[in-house]
């Protein structure tokens, strides 16, 4: 609904109709006397009657004052005067006039922010600055779930933000019991770890496959009656069992993500089937594109090739479809989900949404009712602040990717790809952009260790374990010989000492070999020790460098220095500004 549909003249900016109530000291919506106040309900609160206004008189009314139940929002930023209207007289109790007319050359983007704050947050966070208009009402919509100490305790504006978005397969809500497994306790069916960079120039949305084998740690949870219970962990189980199974709460999923990635989320948000339906409808639908028709009898999706605008039940069917796309796996379904979210982000950041106050309000209602959030962020002001931080990222710098996996031959599951998965986690931990928005990491890598490189087949190195996990030397040898072609390598067990940092010792005439191995392993210049490896020979009796794996070693094939760039990472990634056709 737009401004006109809510009883306002079509030449009036809705943000301009909020004025200070001198009695309450707060802002309220002032409409024309005949304008109906329909639409989104707002909390009502009695306000003191003006002195003498309702105390009786010639009309013969009772001297008992009738409470004023005008609808009063809690906080409203921004200008509040009709554009082009003449300056009004000061309101009683307010010093001076109502303020200056907004400059004509002021960007409309500033006015849009009054309504949206961080509009992107509706998609990946679940609230916008529309919450400022009726704080208490939206606050009452929010469902809070204890985080049980699994998160950081709160996001900060001066550091990177990590947000865990969990989509469950719980069949609650009207009509959802027909989607099979109506008794589902609600597992972590769709999970995205959203990382927003410290400087807010970029964001990475990493999907975690539900059928990936992980270790779920012990998890302390708060039960419905307020008591605490520690739920025992499980090793080598599907990721989706981190929620719902055995009474696990979203905090257990948060702990599982930390165990898997080394990243502790700040907060979590949980969405069920209803969230998909209501959010997609609130913005008037989401455009998707299909490279070929989809007719899925299980999800009940039936769409022809080409572009479609979907919402409600159809949007839910699109996100649940898997058997009619690609190989019919959950990984193919993840691609559909990422396409849908990318399109939703573009829609949210479009002028059609940003300038439509009705859409923003509808979306605020839908988001706060459909999404559950952790207890540390269950407040509309905190959510709006978080939304504004997320909303600073440009669409072209929001990158969707998926944890790289390999098939698990024993069952219909997948495993994190050795080396490659950890490298992706490391990039996120190091706040490196997958969209290469800043290029700093890439430039640093290119400038490092200038000079000639030997071919991998000519690199001679002996590998020792000097503080890494047991088996690291053998795992590194296997990676060097089988994956990157360093066949003239050996592993000689444990070093005689423990080192905090990995080192590479070499003779001056082995500098070209050292540079090549540094490139392969992500070693920094400080890790290289020239002139200290001349006492070693390899199994062929030839001089060999000495690689000692220190406590900073993260795994075979994982860049040690954390200086790798997105260009070095071989994973599928797409930015939210790109329109793609699935199928």
Structural description of this entry:
With 583 residues, this protein is α/β, with parallel strands linked by helices. The chain has helices spanning 108-116, 121-124, 135-141, 250-261, 273-282, 312-320, 330-348, 351-354, 357-370, 380-390, 420-429, 440-447, 472-482, 511-521, and strands at 18-21, 26-29, 143-145, 161-168, 188-196, 203-208, 213-216, 219-222, 228-231, 234-238, 267-271, 286-290, 294-296, 301-303, 306-310, 371-374, 398-402, 405-408, 413-416, 461-465, 489-494, 503-506, 528-530, 545-549, 573-575. The strands form eight sheets. An eight-stranded mixed β-sheet has the order 3-16-11-4-5-6-17-25, with helices on both faces. Strands 21-20-24-22-23 form a five-stranded mixed β-sheet, with helices on one face. A two-stranded antiparallel sheet has the order 1-2. Helix 14 links the parallel strand 22 and strand 23 (528-530). Helix 5 crosses helix 6 and helix 5 runs antiparallel to helix 9 (357-370). The longest helix has 19 residues, at 330-348. Mean pLDDT is 74; it is low at 1-20, 25-133, 176-181 and 444-448.
């Amino acid at each position: 609904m737009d401004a006109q549909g809510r009883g306002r003249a079509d030449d009036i900016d809705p943000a301009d109709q909020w004025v200070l109530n001198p009695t309450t000291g707060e802002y309220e919506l002032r409409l024309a006397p005949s304008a109906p106040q329909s639409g989104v309900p707002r909390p009502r609160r009695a306000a003191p009657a003006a002195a003498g206004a309702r105390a009786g008189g010639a009309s013969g009314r009772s001297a008992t004052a009738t409470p004023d139940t005008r609808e009063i929002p809690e906080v409203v930023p921004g200008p509040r005067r009709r554009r082009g209207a003449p300056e009004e007289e000061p309101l009683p109790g307010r010093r001076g006039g109502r303020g200056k007319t907004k400059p004509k050359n002021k960007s409309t983007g500033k006015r849009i922010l009054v309504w949206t704050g961080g509009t992107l947050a509706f998609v990946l966070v679940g609230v916008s600055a529309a919450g400022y208009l009726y704080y208490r009402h939206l606050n009452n919509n929010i469902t809070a779930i204890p985080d049980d100490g699994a998160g950081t305790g709160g996001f900060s504006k001066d550091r990177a933000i990590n947000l865990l978005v969990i989509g469950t397969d719980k069949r609650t809500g009207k009509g959802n019991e027909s989607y099979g497994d109506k008794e589902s306790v609600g597992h972590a069916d769709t999970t995205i770890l959203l990382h927003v960079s410290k400087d807010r120039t970029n964001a990475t949305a990493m999907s975690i496959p539900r059928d990936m084998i992980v270790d779920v740690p012990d998890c302390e949870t708060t039960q419905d009656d307020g008591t605490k219970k520690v739920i025992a962990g499980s090793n080598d189980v599907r990721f989706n069992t981190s929620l719902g199974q055995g009474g696990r709460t979203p905090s257990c999923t948060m702990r599982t993500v930390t165990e898997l990635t080394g990243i502790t989320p700040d907060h979590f948000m949980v969405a069920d089937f209803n969230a998909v339906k209501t959010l997609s409808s609130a913005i008037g639908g989401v455009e998707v594109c299909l490279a070929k028709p989809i007719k899925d009898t299980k999800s009940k999706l039936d769409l022809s090739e080409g572009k479609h605008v979907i919402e409600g039940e159809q949007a839910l069917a699109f996100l649940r479809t898997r058997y009619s796309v690609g190989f019919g796996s959950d990984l193919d379904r993840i691609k559909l989900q990422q396409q849908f979210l990318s399109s939703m982000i573009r829609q949210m950041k479009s002028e059609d949404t940003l300038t439509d106050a009705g859409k923003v309000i509808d979306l605020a209602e839908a988001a706060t009712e459909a999404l559950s959030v952790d207890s540390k962020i269950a407040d509309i002001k905190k959510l709006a602040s978080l939304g504004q931080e997320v909303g600073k990222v440009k669409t072209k710098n929001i990158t969707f990717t998926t944890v790289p996996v390999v098939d698990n031959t024993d069952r219909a599951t997948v495993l994190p790809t050795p080396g490659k998965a950890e490298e992706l986690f490391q990039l996120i931990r190091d706040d490196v952009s997958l969209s290469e928005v800043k290029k700093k990491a890439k430039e640093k890598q290119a400038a490092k260790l200038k000079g000639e490189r030997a071919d991998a087949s000519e690199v001679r190195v002996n590998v020792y374990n000097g503080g890494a996990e047991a088996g690291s030397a053998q795992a590194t040898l296997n990676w060097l010989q089988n994956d990157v072609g360093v066949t003239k390598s050996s592993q000689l067990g444990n070093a005689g000492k423990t080192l905090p940092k990995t080192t590479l010792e070499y003779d001056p005439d082995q500098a070209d070999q050292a540079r090549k191995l540094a490139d392969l392993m992500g070693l920094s210049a400080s890790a290289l020790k020239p002139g200290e490896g001349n006492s070693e020979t390899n199994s062929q009796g030839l001089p060999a460098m000495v690689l000692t794996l220190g406590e900073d070693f993260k795994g075979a094939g994982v860049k040690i220095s954390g200086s790798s760039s997105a260009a070095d990472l071989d994973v599928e990634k797409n930015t939210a500004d790109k329109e793609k056709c699935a199928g």
